[in-house]
Predict the structure.
Amino acid sequence: MYEVARSGTGPAEARWRRFRALRDELFTGHPCSPLGASDRQAGTGVPYFPFEPSARVLAAVEDAPGEPFEIVLHDDGVLGLERLAWLSFELFGRACRLALYRLSGYGAGLFLPFRDGTAGERTYGGGRYLIDTRKLADLGVEGGRLVLDFNFAYHPSCAYSPRWDCPLAPPENRLELAIEAGECLPANGWTASRA
């Protein structure tokens, strides 16, 4: 899916729509989908905010190693995280900064969870993810800066089902800015229980 998003061919919105279609196929067709059976059968896929061209930014990367910390995941044990860098960028006319983490264990890789002003109302209260290189979920680098496109922000699986236990955005990755881009919650909730 992210290969489609990273490709430089075609208009950005068309790549985003193709990404969404592939993600919807995964969520409605895969037996391990976090969606409940009724939601998968409804085939409506995952809701998104409308495409927002200005939600794509390039972030400056500043090395800023932090102290390692752990998050206990009930079924998966302990997940180790360590801040590697600060990502600085301007979004919707506001200066922003998020921490980029290195995962230790749980497949390793780079990880960027965040929580913004939509959390708890239009998006999952625990936040969303933007980068998870363990799942090849990233948009790469452009001109020496990291590409952050919030149109591709997605909810952790625990937003859809209590069967999943997910790491949430640490306090240093909470933004007051409302980012109305990427996945959002369905207006009327899910069609079935989230069990």
Remarks:
- Residues 49-173 form one domain.
